[in-house]
Queue: 2 jobs
Job 1
Amino acid sequence: MKEITMPSFGSDMEQGVLTEWQVKVGDEVKRGDPIAVIETHKGAIELDAFDEGAIAQLLVQVGEQTPVGQPIAMLAEPGEEITSATTVDQKRETAPDLDTSVAPDAPPAKVPAKPIAPRAPNTAVATADFQPATPAARKLAAKSGILLSDIKGTGPGGAITLVDVEGLLAIGGVSSVSATDSPSSEKTTESVPAKAVAQSGFDPAMMREAISATVTRSKREIPHYYLSHTLDISKLEQHLAERNADVEPLKRTLLIAPLLSLIARALIKFPQLNGHYRDGQFVPSEVVDMANAVNLRGGGLVMPVLRQVDKSSMEALMQQLQAVTERAKQGSLKFSDLDNPSFTVTSIGDRGVESILGVIYPPQVAIVGLGCPRSDVVVVDGEITVSRVMTVTLSADHRVTDGHYGSRFLMEINKRLQKPEALWNE
Amino acid sequence: MERVALREMIIEELINIAPDVEADEVPDDEDLRDALDLDSMDFMRLVAAVHKRTGLEIPEADYRKVLELDQMLDYLVAKAS
């Protein structure tokens, strides 16, 4: 039997609220299957299974606030039977004498002798008028004065998704109702365009707060030092143009992929930049789990993590990048997409300013900023030529490394940039 | 495919990629990526969608010829004929 615990989404998250169970006792899950929706300080995020097995117990109730690390469900491993003791427990939970108000004060036990109280998902009465819907959909529906029972859900199991609510709003059938029903004092919140809210599963206001908390902590605790260097990307661009020439659109490699790949490979030689600073001590990471900052159209940004970038082939990396970026933009990132990066890259993209100096995301100790690729005059072998260049910056934690170390790291990136074909052969 | 139908299709795909964009705010003669704040991944998805819907190929080397909606229509119409 394994515990599924309240996951941590960022170092400043202390607790989460379970807003939806997407499984019930007895359901079989495999790695990556959605289990629950957790409302965090950044908005609603789907928790996906890390292991295979069957759900043996749900330990928290919808709406319940749970500290990070506390078990929220029990998972029976494959072959393991869901014991009769479990069933007894389940029954006991629904008994009328259960005092749920005690639960929040109870000390977080490793394995609670008595599970903390689910009743809603398991009782017939509750299920009858329980309308499955995502948290973002609920929120928008409530804000717009729409009853969930009036909406036809198109999500898994008929769940109402944000798109369903949006669709209804777009038709205009209900917007006038909400305008007349809502007190004028709330007009300002009502006037937030549905589409802006609907951008993603993240709540823009909550996300602003979360970003604010993270960068404030970073600038308060981490003594940053900054380095910058302009690198010649002509060879890489040339190599990519050749590779992409006869390839169908979705198989083309974007410039960012080989850049992330070579940064990850360089990090293996500079382990003091790749890892976590916790309790006054730096612990290097063995793999490069690289967060790639993605700008959201509605505002804000998310940092989905690309796994083991140092070991990925370019094709695999590009696929991972496409999948995770699409989830980020749709607001459907899962916890496993965001969990525990060891390093971050932030980029301006190929339209915009020439350099960006990132703020380190604690407990990481460094971030690379990629500026917009551009043409510039450079001197090569004593001759003035026009080259394609990119300004690459490093912000790093001075408690862990010094400028000299960081400088060598940037030069290592430059060296690898001049042999782009190696990235496809390693 | 008629130019008008092509235009509608491209706008439809643009909105799939950037759901906050309204059909009537897609400019005909401005750089789409700047006007609609599309990143390179968004543009790649647009090119892929156009390919899927029309069978017409826009190689990467021609991206600079299709930056504006009108340009993209000219390019695709010429290619289809």
Job 2
Amino acid sequence: MTRFTKTFLLILLIFSSQLIVNCSSDDDLINEEIENSTSWMDDLERSLGSGTKAKLNSWIDKGLDKGKLKEAFSKAKDKAGLMTDLENAQSIYHQRVYIEDWDNIPGIAKSDYSPNGLTSGMTHPAWKNSELDLPAVEAANFVDAVATELPAGTKIYRITGGNPAGGYWTKAKPSSIGDVIGGTAVQPAWNNFSKFYTYEVPQAQKLKVWQGTTARQPIAAGVINPHLPGGEIQLFLPLAVRDETFKKLVQEIPLPW
Amino acid sequence: MVNSEKIKNHYLALLQVVEAEATTNMASHDFLTYLNKYKDQFTSANNTMHSAELKESIRGVNRFADQFVFSAPHDSKIRMLINTLYETLSQS
């Protein structure tokens, strides 16, 4: 065997042994990761009761990020409280707020919140009806607002899991949940975004509304960053406008996504 | 009446109306739960020291209320109390 061959074989031996060590280390890391991936759930099963692990896995199967979920429970001082919050959440987006999974909540702005809404209510003298005023608490949800009469044939839209005939609508059809959460600044705590409604202003009628740019909102109480940027045009329909006739004409249509 | 007492009394009045609503309207329980989360903050003796935070909270209460159908006698009272709370906090 030549000197070159011996040297080559030695180098090959060193390289092979290093590869085996690295693979073993990788295997150890993988085994450790697998073990750790469920041990936190086992701990929660023990502390929060039977069925906890099944619930956590069902949420993960539905798209909740496992790593963020684990991190949230690791940081939580009140783990039972967090579990209750997650169980009672409006939607997966609401759950994502609880576990601070901001990357998976569409429409949010990753910067500090500062309020930019109107600071007082508004009245429209031509309407001569205080029941059509924009109250201060609603005006706060607008950057700017103008009293408008929507003509016959105008269609307006609303995404909600609750009252089909509530006050907040848009003239533009939302094309994504991000448009609703971010553009019209709707916290996931308030809405499960499960249904889509439309209303068309009947012939020979006009609909008195307040129209303007949506103001920013916090994404959740006590959170400054991220926030909901607003910016989309929204409508507020005074309660007086949303009478029984109005309610009968509100129609559910398929969600646009 | 100083604003602190006004804020506390109005919030308790709001809770009372929603509690009455919840006895016949199961769907409004979520709204009642939401209101109870903020009860201590609104009814504390130094609530006016946190008026900016409470203003945001009542803004959220109002926005959430838009999801609910309340019975006729309670609906306008709930909206009025929410708006009054907001205006009082704006003056604090």
